[in-house]
Amino acid sequence: MTELIPAPRGAVTGAGEVRLTRHSRLHAGTGTERVGRWLGAALRQATGLPLGEGREPGEAEGGIGLRLRPGLGPEEYRLVSDGNGVLIEGGGAAGVFWGAQTLRQLLGPDAYRRAPLGRDRSWTVPYLTIEDGPRFRWRGLMLDVARHFMPKEGVLRYLDLMAAHKLNVFHFHLTDDQGWRIEIERHPRLTETGSWRARTKTGHRASPLWEDKPHGGYYTQDDIREIVAYAAERHITVVPEIDVPGHSQAAIAAYPELGNTDVIDTTSLSVWDTWGINPNVLAPTDNTLRFYEGVFEEVLALFPSEFVHVGGDECPKDQWQRSETAQARIRELGLADEDELQSWFIGHFDTWLAERGRRLIGWDEILEGGLAGGAAVSSWRGYAGGIAAARAGHDVVMCPEQQVYLDHRQDPGPEEPVPIGWVRTLEDVYRFEPVPPELTPGEARHVLGTQANLWTEVMEDHARVDYQAFPRLAAFAEVAWSPLPAPEARDFADFERRMAAHYRRLDALGVAYRPPTGPLPWQRRPGVLGRPIDGPPPSR
Ligand code: ACM
Predict the structure, then answer these.
(1) Which protein residue has the closest C-alpha to ligand 1 atom 3?
(2) 138-530: which CATH architecture?
(3) Tally of CA atoms within 13 A in the half-sphere of 353 that contains its CB
(4) What's the topology of domain 10-132?
(5) For the chain, give me the number of helices (H) and strands (E)?
(6) Ligand 1, pocket-test mutation among 313, 367, 404, 456, most atoms within 8 A of CB
(7) Mean pLDDT of 483-496
(8) Catalytic residues, which ones?
(9) Residue-level pLDDT at 222
(10) Distance from CA of residue 282 to its chain's centroid?
(11) Taking the domains of the chain in order of start, what are their residue ranges?
C-alpha cells in the first residue's frame, strides 16, 4: 500500500480492505463528473467490472465516491478507504483526479491494463486515509517532437503516463532547426517544407553515421485540439513552444525571407539534418515579426495556457554582426549590441503576448539584456539563470541540464545506448532539489516548479523515449510532488523499494523503461557513437 509514487504527504493505514465487485458503484458528485467518467473508463477497461453510476453523489456505499471538499487547495485531495468504501475528496476537480490516480496505484499493477485478466480476479483497496497535495504547481515534462517526430497517439500516451505520475504541465517543443511540427494555416510551407528532412545524423553530431531516409511529420490543427483536450481531461496544461530567433532553420528553409538574406543565400538552406547550435537565425525585420505574430495568433487560438514558450535559447549572433539590416536595426533602436537586439526581439513578443492576456516564458538566455515584467524563465543552464530571474522578481521553472535532462545517459556502463551527456542515475534525479538554497523564502516563491526535459536527438521512437524517461521520470515526479527532505537526507532505499512495485505498473502500461540491471539486448545500440563520459558540458 505504501508503495505509492509519488509518495503522499501523509498516509495512515487501517485493518481491512474494500473489495470492489460487480455490484460496486461509482458516484461522482457535482463538479467531479469528468473525473468520474475518466476513472470509470480506466477501471472498467482494466477490471471488467461494470462500476455502474451511483445514485447518491459523494457517498461511497461500498464502492467509489468522488466529491469536492471546500477548504482543500485546488490540487489537494483526501482519500479514505474504510467500511463505507473508497471516498476521494478534492479541493477542485484536479485534486479529485490526482486522488483517482492514487486509487489506481492502490488497486495494483493490473489496474493499468487495457483488458481484464480474468473474471475471478479480485480488486481490493486496503483501509487507509491519505492526505495529499503537490509541493509545486508546475510539474512539467518537455518533449522535443522536432528532432524526432512523435505521432499523435504517442503524445496522448505520454499524457497518460504524465497523469499516472501526477505531472501537470506538458511543454510541447514544436519547432526547431530539424523540423516544424504544427500546421499554421496562413503559412502552409512551414509544414509542407519544414516538417521533413532528407536524412538524420545518428548519435552525437560528431558521429560519422547517418540514417539515409527522410524523417518528418506534423500535427494538424485538429490533432492539436485533440491533444489539448485530452490533456485538459487529465488536468494537464499544454504549453506550446515556438522557438525564436534561433533554432529556426526549418522555418527559414520554408520561407527563406525569414533569414538573414544579406549575409547568406537562405534559399539554399534545407531542414537541418544534424545536431548542435545552428548559425542560421531569424532576421530581426518587421517582416519576421509580422510573420511570427501570425504564427502566434494561430497558436493562441489552439492553446488556452497562460504561458506561451518562445524559446530564446542558443541564438548565435554571427549573422546579425555581419548583416547590414540587423546593424541598421540596432542603430535605429539605439541598442548597444546584438545581445540587446535579441532582447528587443523577445521583448516584442513579451508585450504582444501580454496584450493578449498571456505570459511569455523562455529559456534562460532571455534574461540577457533585460526582461519585461510578467515574463518567466525556464532555467536550463544550471540554477544561475533561475536564481537571477527569481531575484529580479520573475517566475522560474527549474530544469537544469545537469540534473533533469533525461536524454543524458543513466549509467556509465558500455552498454548504454547512444550515450550522450553526463551520467545521471535514478538516484541523482531523486536527489535533485528544484529550489536552490541561495534563494530567500520570498525569492523562492518565484520558483513555480520544475520540469524534466526530453530532447530527442538520440530518441528516434517511442521505445527510446521510454528508455530515457523511465524510471527517472518516476523519481522526478516525486521530487516535483512530494515534500521531500534535503537531497542528502532523502531515503533512496525506500524509493527503490517502492519502485519495485512501480516497475510492475510500468510493465502493465507497456513502458520500455531501463531495467535496474541494465539495457535488454534489444535496447542496446552497439556501434552508435555518443559522447565521452563526463566530458565537457554537452551540446548534442
Ligand atoms: C536547451 O537545452 N537548449 C534549452
Answers:
(1) 313
(2) Alpha-Beta Barrel (3.20)
(3) 30
(4) Chitobiase; domain 2 (3.30.379)
(5) 17, 21
(6) 313
(7) 98
(8) 176, 247, 314
(9) 98
(10) 26
(11) 10-132, 138-530
The number of residues making up the chain comes to: 540
Cα torsion 457, 462, 468, 474 to 10°: value is 140
**Cα–ligand 1 centroid distance for 79 (angstroms):** 39
Residue with more model confidence, 203 or 509: 509
Strands (E), 368-527: 376-379, 395-398, 447-454
Residue nearest to atom 2 of ligand 1 (CA): 380
**Any atom of ligand 1 within 6 Å of the Cβ of 313:** yes
363 C-beta closer than 6 A to ligand 1: yes
275 within ligand 1 shell (Cβ under 6 A)? no
User: What confidence score (pLDDT) does residue 537 get?
Assistant: 44
What is the separation of C-alpha 183 from the centre of its chain, rounded to a whole number of angstroms? 21
Question: In 3-state terms, the chain is what percent helix, strand and coil (to 5)?
Answer: 35, 20, 45
Q: Please tell me the predicted confidence (pLDDT) of residue 56.
A: 61
Of the candidates 367, 360, 252, the one whose C-alpha atom is nearest the C-alpha of residue 300 is 360
pLDDT single digits (tens) 170-212: 999 999 999 999 999 999 999 999 999 999 999 888 888 899 9
Amino acid letter, 290: R
Instruction: For residue 311, give the ligand 1 atom closest to its CA.
Output: 4
Q: State whether the beta carbon of 110 lies less than 6 angstroms from ligand 1.
A: no
